[in-house]
Amino acid sequence: MPNIRTINNIHQQGLACFKERYQVAEGQEAPDAIMLRSANLHDYDFPSEVKALARCGAGVNNIPIQRCSEQGIVVFNTPGANANAVKELVLGGMLLSARNIAAGLSFIEGLSEDMDAKALQLKVEAEKKGFVGSELTGKTLGVVGLGAIGAEVAHAALGLGMKVVGFDPALSVQAAWRLSSEVECADELKDLLAASDYVTIHVPANKHTQGLINSDNLASIKQGAVLLNFARGSIVDEDALLTALAKQQLSQYVSDFPSLALLKHPKVLSLPHLGASTNEAEQNCAVMAARQLIDFLENGNIHNSVNFPNIKLSRTEGYRIAFANDNVPKVLSNVLALLSDMDINVIDMLNKSRNDIAYTLMDIATPATTELLEAIANVEHVFHVNAIGEHA
Ligand SMILES: NC(=O)C1=CN([C@@H]2O[C@H](COP(=O)(O)OP(=O)(O)OC[C@H]3O[C@@H](n4cnc5c(N)ncnc54)[C@H](O)[C@@H]3O)[C@@H](O)[C@H]2O)C=CC1
Ligand SMILES: O=C(O)CCC(=O)C(=O)O
């Protein structure tokens, strides 16, 4: 029975996918796979049994991808499964800032209950001029990153009557197909920043996007613009942000990632990483992650991995083995020669590669023995081998 270790709060519907065929628990010993959300695994010791990690969510900056690849651990995420939840909160963030909602709420909270009803009305009507906002319709929204979330935000903003400018030099063909032609594409980030009343960031956090919004780029931003960050804190350089706020270059920063330097800043609205915290998104992510893990553990198939190639080989007959190797010539032929020497017939086979990693699914006529698995593991450049399902 395969073991699944959970880290973080994983939606019950996702856990239910494993049925009684799996042992699933927080702190589960000898896990075949780990399911998690935002926990930081950079210093985590992966037990030797771990074959896969499933991140119930989009961002994988909390996972040491390179180390996982080296250990033959397939890392999955759940693209798009929480995009609607983030989109709705970004809209909330724009409205919070456009209509001074947080300031209005704290004004009301600060009112004395000792007033009579008439005094309360007079106070409210007298003070409301201090909270006058502006409307989103007719304003320009700049969307940095037009993937699953960026596209949803762009479309919702068009629906509110905003003009939308996007920037995404690495946009996938699939993402381009789902994007409305009403979204104007900027050639340079600076062009987007100069044109936008609101700028919202939806790129992954990685070494290329760290400090993407820096003093150089902020110097181009339209005077008084609002910056929204529901992607990751590290994408915005904090010193540059504080300077831009002090110089009124930016009027507000709305972020899902509180930091000590910004905590009490009057022009910063911070939320406690709530972008994906809806029942629907948590369920979508957990169910998608669980299904991907099950297909991997039971069939070796890979769908939505961030480090291994996508692969799907239908099950017909025979006994399945999977192996991963450095993506260099001769490995497959060496493994096939070995099978031939051992008089083992191959019924079906599929080999895919992605960057430095090649991965093969093979259905053989007889159950894989320990001897066979060890022999494949010893082929030069093979770094992981596994018998899938029932074997000798
Ligand atoms: N606040 C929250 O709770 C959540 C935050 N996120 C964050 O949002 C990020 C984006 O999520 P998705 O839209 O689902 O990912 P996605 O992979 O669908 O889209 C990301 C897009 O960013 C683009 N991109 C990458 N580098 C870029 C750059 N330098 N400039 C412009 N575009 C660039 C990519 O080409 C891609 O189209 C995640 O990586 C995660 O960090 C995601 C879900 C929830
Ligand atoms: O699990 C969560 O609440 C965080 C989601 C998130 O940040 C992501 O999907 O990248």
Automatic annotation (TrEMBL):
It comes from the Bacteria. The keyword Oxidoreductase applies. SUPFAM superfamilies: ACT-like, Formate/glycerate dehydrogenase catalytic domain-like, NAD(P)-binding Rossmann-fold domains. Gene3D superfamilies: 3.30.70.260, NAD(P)-binding Rossmann-like Domain. It catalyses: (R)-2-hydroxyglutarate + NAD(+) = 2-oxoglutarate + NADH + H(+); (2R)-3-phosphoglycerate + NAD(+) = 3-phosphooxypyruvate + NADH + H(+). Residues 320-390 form the ACT domain. Keywords: NAD, Oxidoreductase. The keyword Ubl conjugation does not apply. GO terms for molecular function: NAD binding; phosphoglycerate dehydrogenase activity. Its EC number is 1.1.1.399, 1.1.1.95. Pathway: Amino-acid biosynthesis; L-serine biosynthesis; L-serine from 3-phospho-D-glycerate: step 1/3. Catalyzes the reversible oxidation of 3-phospho-D-glycerate to 3-phosphonooxypyruvate, the first step of the phosphorylated L-serine biosynthesis pathway. Also catalyzes the reversible oxidation of 2-hydroxyglutarate to 2-oxoglutarate. Belongs to the D-isomer specific 2-hydroxyacid dehydrogenase family. This is D-3-phosphoglycerate dehydrogenase. The lineage of its organism: Bacteria, Pseudomonadati, Pseudomonadota, Gammaproteobacteria, Alteromonadales.
